[in-house]
Amino acid sequence: MSAYFNVKIDGQVVVTNILGQWSEQVALSFEKEMHRVVPNVSATRFAHLVSFDEWELSTPSVAPIVRRVAGWCVSQGMYVAAEVFSANVLKEYLINKATEEVKDHVTIRRFSSESDARKWLAEMGFETQTTQQLPT
Description:
By secondary structure, the chain is an alpha/beta fold. The longest helix is centred in the first third of the chain and has 14 residues, at 24-37. It has four helices and five strands; from the N terminus they run E-E-H-E-H-E-H-E-H. Strands 1-2-3-4-5 form a five-stranded mixed beta sheet, sandwiched between helices. Helix 1 packs parallel to helix 2.
């Protein structure tokens, strides 16, 4: 599977789907896309719904880029993040490393289903306009 991502806005929620094995080049493209999309959220605070279910990990050079994107998102108003993926110790470890610098500034919850993640986001005040599943 090739590496891929999809980023869109759904109300006050930035919805991201991460797929495949990420290289530094893919991570840099993702950073550029986030810098393009996030300023279009029509609120001072926003949520991030991200699916890692189809993510097949990444090269070590990706970690600092993802940390930089997470920090930038917090500086832009990211208030909560809902991460969706099935139990996977390695994914959890890598995601923890990528978010450790922002965890004191944003509420992050993990879910095994997108519907549970969307329910939690709604409870936090970030309802999505669509109930469809993230594209794969």
